[in-house]
Amino acid sequence: QVQLVESGGGSVQAGGSLRLSCAASGITYSNYCMGWYRQAPGNEREGVAAIGRDSTTSYVDSVKGRFTISRDNAKNSLYLQMNSLKPEDAAMYYCAADPWPCIGSLTASVYTYWGQGTQVTVAS
To answer: What pLDDT, in 10s, does the model give residues 58-79?
Structure first.
């Protein structure tokens, strides 16, 4: 059974930092591209960052220079370091897995497995 479990969300002041984690099980993790998505109330789900099997990364423009996605294949884990957080970053954050062949896309429809999400709140 495939499971993606996010953690690390919380409430921070604007300008603060959070590190999200996603623990994967039930898959051969190194064979998957991974992504972070977010969805705020009333908004569509948005691709935030993605990482390929070779650790090539891509980001939505609004988080470039502030967020860093990384993976640890030995720990079957995905991370999202979020710095200089803004109120508009507040959302439920989800991790997702896209099996090989994959390119580390920000397009939600390519992802097969999704976690349940972790909430990020940013106070102004």
So the answer is: 999 999 999 999 999 999 999 9
